[in-house]
């Protein structure tokens, strides 16, 4: 094995701000439950969602910046909280072709809440960071359609 040397690059901090649209009802649904509902969903009872797993491939609904692809599942019987793993693939601008991965626990009625950035591709290779989420809109009758504001802080080279 021949040792190689690399020049050190300075680490950068990138801030991204966007709104994520999640629609699991209606004619333009972008996320669907992938396991059958055992019981009806009641937003006042977190246990009614426990174990439900949803997969998403959300398109852009305003200025095109990227696509969110991944899944989330209800992870608590005592509060509305999801375990999430999502890749945010950017399709426009300086970071076109790059993506970052978000992973963590998402207690949806806590504003703001924090999830981890645990890697990425392209410009975000070797990235780490966090995302601050705030629910901007939720259809409280069904909980099916939501808009979430994201402030993402990514350290990368």
**What's the Cα radius of gyration?**
17 Å
Order of neighbouring strands in the sheet with most strands? 1-9-8-7-6-5-4-3-2
How would you state the average pLDDT, rounded? 80
Global outline: elongated
Provide the descriptors you would attach to this structure in a database record.
157 residues; single chain; AOC barrel-like; nine-stranded antiparallel β-sheet; mainly beta
Write structural notes for this entry.
The protein has strands at residues 12-23, 31-33, 53-58, 66-74, 81-90, 99-107, 113-121, 128-138, 145-156. The protein is mainly beta. It has a single domain (12-156), classed as Allene oxide cyclase-like (AOC barrel-like). A nine-stranded antiparallel beta sheet has the order 1-9-8-7-6-5-4-3-2, with no helix packed on it. It is elongated.
Quick structural summary:
The protein has 157 residues and is an all-beta fold.
Topology at a glance:
Elements: E1 12-23, E2 31-33, E3 53-58, E4 66-74, E5 81-90, E6 99-107, E7 113-121, E8 128-138, E9 145-156
Antiparallel strand pairs: 1-9, 2-3, 3-4, 4-5, 5-6, 6-7, 7-8, 8-9
